[in-house]
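PROTEIN DATA CARD
Card holder: alcohol dehydrogenase
Chain length: 347
Origin: Arthrobacter glacialis
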Amino acid sequence: MAVPEVYLAPGDALIEVEFATVCGSDLHTVHGRRSAPTPLVLGHEQVGKVVAVGEGARRAGGQALAIGDRVIWSIMVSCGDCDRCLKGVPQKCRQLAKYGHEQVRHGWELSGGFATHVHLRSGTTIVPVASSMPREIAAPLSCASATAIGAIDAAASVMNLDGATMLVTGAGLVGLTVAAAATDRGARVIVSDPDPSRRANALRFGAIETVDPMSPAGLPDSFEAVQTRLGLQDGLDVSIEASGSSAAVAQAIDCLDIGGVAVLVGSVHPAGRVQLDPEAVVRGLKTVRGVHNYAPKHLIDAVAYLEERHCAYPFAELVGTSYPLSELDEAIAEATTGGHVRVGIIP
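Structure generated from the sequence above:
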């Protein structure tokens, strides 16, 4: 699709995309697991360079946005004035618009990351990224990495993570980022995933043990066996569910010790209902929190965390292969195989 002209309103910016990654949400849309208006430009994990600015365009910290800045940006555009924005959940703005999710319309044709350029609208959180950060790490900041930091923040608001035992279900990019960042905050992290290669990967991101959720109780890679080895018969302090599996959601709640907190972040498409024992929640003083997308703070914190720690873990290796934008269909097909945590797109 060619766009003959772009009009930048006050606060807007035009970005030349450097690199993008295929998120699981893109695949859900392509394969019909979530509805989306068409036509649309997919893609909401990307990094790029500012090539034009509207009057008053600013970074998240309030500084003027400048041509040449290397930036990432929030998945959402928020109005900043509605009741939801004012109470601190701009990701649920009454006037919410989302990059990579909106129907193409006149005046905002460049609304997704699988393109050469993206038109950022006023109300987008724009964060500069150091030139030293590899593009493979910078691009997913806009979705998976910021969401992971949001999930950790939700858990930390209930439970001190230093010394806590944590179960992370799902060793995709969100789960692996949670494992690394929680480990850096002093947690002892167990990662559960049915894929043996992803379980092995989790050990490189700070996990002290891994679990095969399909393994019978008697085998050494079962959850029960790991609990026994670690002396956790009373349960865990924290669980972060990043897979979207209904069975994993149930385990994330059931595995908690007294006063534990479960953060659900992976259930972004229908996956069946989960049976909940309310008495166990009440008597166990359990907290269950949902995290969808993230607040601007989490994007800023994710950039700061990965600028400091991206060399400590093999984040760059999570993009297993990349395709030119002209081969987007092939890239999505490759991502659908599940053989890579992320597949890259090079405009």
